[in-house]
Design a protein that fits this description.
The protein is of the alpha/beta class and about 260 residues long. The chain has nine helices and ten strands. The chain is globular, with a radius of gyration of 17 Å.
Length: about 260
């Protein structure tokens, strides 16, 4: 692709984004309005993690999620350095996007030491949202801006041991905050309840400042721990093992959708 073609591609992606004056900062325009959940402030959203799917049939796992009417798919990208595990890269994301070209929101979580080097390949591969960690040393604010310049939603992530204050200066610049409720790297870990006060603090800042980002949790989320996170202010729930191993996945999704915001309780 030439430089002119790259610029045109970025302009086309930005043309798909509209701004709202209320809750949502941006909303992907699709023929079936599949991503309208982003415009509903108190909506509880399930984000199945494909890390827990069948790695020999990842496209089938993605299509299963879409077939259940779940609009969001969480993609964990690990580099073997920031976390002690490796997953997949932009080529796999592009293959998944080709298998599910619409109706499924790709929430792409970069667990990388140098995420700024890889945001463009993942966006070109089909990511709808790219989230980056606060812990490595790089230009966090500049990288978040660059994600938006490329026509994509952005997010900031913090590990269980990272204080909420580390991301506070960036809260006005993000579409999503992801609070890890396990140490990232491997699925199937036990939920850490010591993260709940941090969730509540981030939610308070969001309310007090009239901010509009979604508050996502990832790690050990199931039908018991999810409502605890909801009560602390979370609205987006990454579930891997609990979802893909569930005997009734549709029932699991329905339960998550029924978790009520504390603002509405």
């Amino acid at each position: 692709m030439t430089n002119d073609e790259r610029r045109m591609d970025c302009r086309c992606r930005r043309d798909r984004v509209i701004r709202h004056s209320s809750f949502v900062i941006r909303h992907w325009i699709t023929s079936d309005s599949s991503f309208s959940f982003f415009a509903v402030k108190h909506a509880s959203v399930l984000a199945p993690s494909i890390l827990a799917g069948d790695h020999a049939r990842l496209a089938d796992s993605a299509q299963l999620v879409k077939g259940l009417g779940i609009p969001w798919l969480h993609l964990d990208i690990m580099d073997g350095h920031f976390v002690p595990n490796l997953t997949f890269g932009p080529q796999t994301v592009a293959a998944l996007r080709a298998a599910v070209p619409d109706g499924l929101f790709f929430d792409t979580h970069l667990m990388l030491n140098e995420p700024h080097r890889y945001i463009e390949p993942f966006i070109k591969a089909g990511a709808d949202l790219v989230s980056i960690h606060i812990e490595p040393a790089y230009d966090h604010a500049g990288t978040l801006r660059r994600i938006r310049e490329l026509g994509c939603l952005n997010g900031i992530v913090l590990n269980p041991g990272t204080p909420a204050e580390a991301i506070e200066p960036l809260l006005g610049e993000v579409d999503l905050v992801l609070a890890m409720t396990v140490q990232p790297g491997f699925g199937g870990q036990a939920f850490r309840r010591d993260v709940l006060p941090k969730l509540a603090q981030i939610d308070r800042w969001r309310t007090e400042r009239g901010l509009t980002f979604r508050l996502e949790v990832d790690g050990g989320i199931d039908l018991a721990t999810g409502p605890e996170c909801r009560a602390a202010g979370a609205d987006t729930f990454v579930a891997g093992t609990a979802f893909f191993k569930a005997a009734d996945r549709a029932g699991f999704a329905a339960s998550v959708a029924g978790w009520q915001s504390p603002a509405l309780a």
